[in-house]
Specification:
Blueprint (H helix, E strand, L loop, with lengths): L1 H19 L14 H4 L2 H31 L5 H30 L2
Helix pairs in contact: 1-3, 1-4, 3-4
């Protein structure tokens, strides 16, 4: 069963890590780094807050999906892998869309 929730646990761990130890300032190594998030300090903080929350949420959803699919005795292993990957990748565009709306509204 652990193979069904490894990705989920990783997503939750990264989200909690960003919540507990958020990046103090913009950098090239740690945090949600896109052109939009790096363009203003407020966007940097909001991007990291949102991406960490989404990572935790999607990690939990992914774990629930994994447990449900595990109960169906490995028949849907590839479905779980794809759903986890889609949830993981979707954090970036969702956060970016929100940041661009904030940037446009506040004219950063």
């Amino acid at each position: 069963m652990i193979e069904y929730i490894q990705i989920s646990l990783g997503m939750i761990f990264i989200g909690v890590l960003l919540k507990v130890i958020p990046p103090k300032k913009k950098n090239n190594y740690y945090g949600f780094r896109t052109a939009t998030s790096l363009s203003h300090e407020v966007l940097w903080k909001k991007g990291n807050q949102l991406s960490s929350s989404l990572s935790i949420l999607f990690g939990v959803l992914s774990a629930i999906i994994g447990i449900i699919l595990y109960l169906y005795e490995y028949q849907f292993a590839s479905l779980f892998q794809w759903s986890s990957l889609i949830l993981l990748i979707s954090i970036i565009p969702i956060t970016e869309i929100v940041l661009r709306r904030i940037k446009k509204k506040n004219k950063y």
